[in-house]
Amino acid sequence: MMKRIQKISIRDYALLSIGFFLFFTLMRPYGIENSVSDKLWALQSLGCCSLIFVAALISEVIVSYVFRLPCDYSKDWPYQVRRGIIFFIFLAVLISAFGGQYFTIIEWGWKKWYYFWIDYDQNFSLQWYWNSFRQDLIWAIFVAVYWLFMTKSRMKEHKIRELTSLNDAIDQAGTVCEEPAGVVEICGEYKESLTVSPTDILYMESIANYLSIWYFQDGELKQKRIRTTLKSVEEALAGYTFLLHCHRAFLVNTRFITHVDGNSAGCQLHLFSIDRTIPVSKANIEALRRAI
Question: Are the beta carbons of 181 and 200 closer than 8 angstroms?
């Protein structure tokens, strides 16, 4: 199970624990600033921060395996926000319980550990827990800002690595083996048709009930619009692996890709001889990499 938790997450939890250590050591948030020496308080804070690290790991396991939201910076922003909210809820709940219980034991001893969960009348109460929780909300603001900055930064880093990988694959593609000679006939609903070699197709775009086909003929780029669906044409061209359904409305010839760029919204393909870009849906990025 732990193998699926990314090292970068564990590093973040370690930094979070160190931040708590500094916070506890300098601020003494539980109101016992005069009960122990600075050195002893620092040692006690170190123990509490170890519990915080454990709480973060438990929260990560819950979010990744119970809610099925593992750490994945290739996912879109709504996924990151949903994962972050659930993670911080569990983290705050666990840290408040672990931290409050820990300092209760330090102050009253192991035999009176339950003091954290009772009121002055010796009845079960969450009063001290909620006090601990409200104090923990102070650091939660700073942690949320850190999470926001790091998540956006890592999403951009992932996108850059992804685009670099695709462009490297294009640069290293080398000479492409010639396809067997042959042509296909693409027929429309009103008897219109186009006979073309699949290797000469640049891209196809589905527009309403029509399919716009861009292709080369005698070295000249041409366009033909046929009333048909992209799905039916894709089935007819299924044997040509260099023709990739990269987006719900586009099928592109990967051999004419010159460059790939993009942003957090997705990738765009630059093709030989045209200025416009072709979108790539996130679900098809891996298929694009394999095709290249």
Answer: no
| 263, containing H or E segment | strand 257-263
Residues 58, 91: Cα–Cα separation, whole Å: 8
Task: Give just the sign of the alpha carbon dihedral 142, 148, 153, 155.
Answer: positive
* CA pair distance 207, 77, nearest whole angstrom: 29
Inform me whether the pLDDT recorded for 264 exceeds 70.
no
pTM: 0.64
Nearest CA among 200, 189, 190, 249 for reference residue 223: 200
Torsion (CA) 49, 54, 55, 60 in degrees, nearest 10: 130
> Does 96 or 286 have the greater pLDDT score?
96
Rounded-to-integer distance, Cα 29 and Cα 14, Å = 20
Indicate the angle between helix axes 38-61 and 77-108, nearest 10 degrees. 140
- 93 within 8 A of 126, measured Cβ to Cβ: no
| Neighbouring C-beta atoms of residue 217, cutoff 10 Å | 12
The DSSP 8-state label assigned to residue 247 in this structure reads E
Beta strand 250-253 pairing with 201-207: antiparallel
List, for residues 95-131, the tens digit of each pLDDT value: 888 888 888 888 788 888 888 888 888 888 888 889 8
Contacts of 284 (CB under 8 A, 6+ apart): 244, 245, 246, 247
